[in-house]
Design a protein that fits this description.
The structure is a single chain. With about 250 residues, this protein is an alpha/beta fold. The protein has one domain: 4-Layer Sandwich (Purple Acid Phosphatase, chain A, domain 2), CATH 3.60.21.10. About 30% of the residues lie in helices and about 20% in strands. The strands form two sheets. The chain has a six-stranded mixed beta sheet with strand order 3-2-1-11-12-9. Strands 4-5-6-10-7-8 form a six-stranded mixed beta sheet, with helices on one face. Helix 6 links the parallel strand 5 and strand 6. The radius of gyration is 17 Å and the shape is globular. The protein binds zinc ion. Zinc ion binds next to loops.
Length: about 250
């Protein structure tokens, strides 16, 4: 089975469409680690596009925010503004689709999906210490997570040593591969489709081929200016517009 794994699409239709074009023909099923909406200018079109693929999906904190399920005073003011804007934009059928999405972890054998971590859907897996708390809870060799918008992840070897996964897809190259050893444990972040924060503005995604035991990390350029122009028209915060071209 070849899974296309998407995370943190964040209402960015141009990024999503570009990723789907690049990945076309290379996967059998779509999985999503949450944050379909929030920040970006196309919540309805993005939800509708995602729904076309009948993905296995778990909710992110921005689904909860868009549905009014969280105290927005815990969000930073710019994220809050965008969340309120998204709440106002969402059409009823898309809102009920988002409301039907369950919290992770979700097992899709032979892998697991989470938004934040295996401990908590809202936890940021930032460093090795965070990852070391999650590894013992892993039910399959590979767990996919999002939330940090940083492509890469963590590995724990059989002897207990652990390290960072850094795909480092340089300019001019679009793919980096990770061979999975089923005796080890992996926490893999496919990166953000719609708002990367790892100093690379290109949309990120992963294809996991379970027969070949191969995780393929990808980056692809998309028409950022088009997304940004829509954000200007929607009067979304300038900082959220600028960060798309900075990739942070
Ligand atoms: Zn996110």
């Amino acid at each position: 089975m070849r899974f296309l794994i998407l995370s943190d699409i964040h209402s960015n239709l141009e990024a999503l469409n570009t990723v789907l074009e690049q990945a076309a023909g290379q996967y059998d099923q779509v999985l999503c680690c949450g944050d379909i909406v929030g920040y970006g200018p196309d919540p309805n079109a993005v939800v509708e596009r995602v729904r076309e693929f009948h993905p296995q999906v778990i909710r992110g904190n921005h689904e909860k925010a868009a549905l009014g399920m969280v105290d927005l005073s815990l969000f930073n003011p710019l994220a809050k503004r965008a969340a309120l804007w998204t709440q106002g934009e969402l059409e009823a059928s898309n809102r009920s689709y988002l409301a039907s999405i369950q919290a992770g972890p979700l097992d899709v054998p032979p892998l697991t999906l989470v938004h934040g971590s295996l401990l908590d859907e809202d936890q940021y897996l930032i460093d090795l210490e965070d990852a070391l708390e999650s590894f013992p809870l892993a039910r399959y060799p590979v767990t996919f997570f999002g939330h940090t918008h940083v492509q890469g992840g963590f590995v724990r070897l059989q002897d207990g040593r652990a390290g960072l996964l850094n795909p480092e897809i340089k300019r001019g190259s679009s793919e980096s591969q990770l061979h999975i050893d089923p005796e080890q444990r992996y926490l893999v972040n496919p990166g953000a489709v719609g708002q990367p924060r790892d100093y690379d503005s290109r949309a990120a995604f992963v294809i996991y081929d379970t027969e070949a035991q191969l995780v393929r990390y990808f980056r692809t350029s998309y028409p950022i200016e088009r997304t940004q122009a829509k954000m200007v028209a929607a009067q979304l915060p300038q900082y959220l517009i600028d960060r798309l071209s900075l990739g942070r």
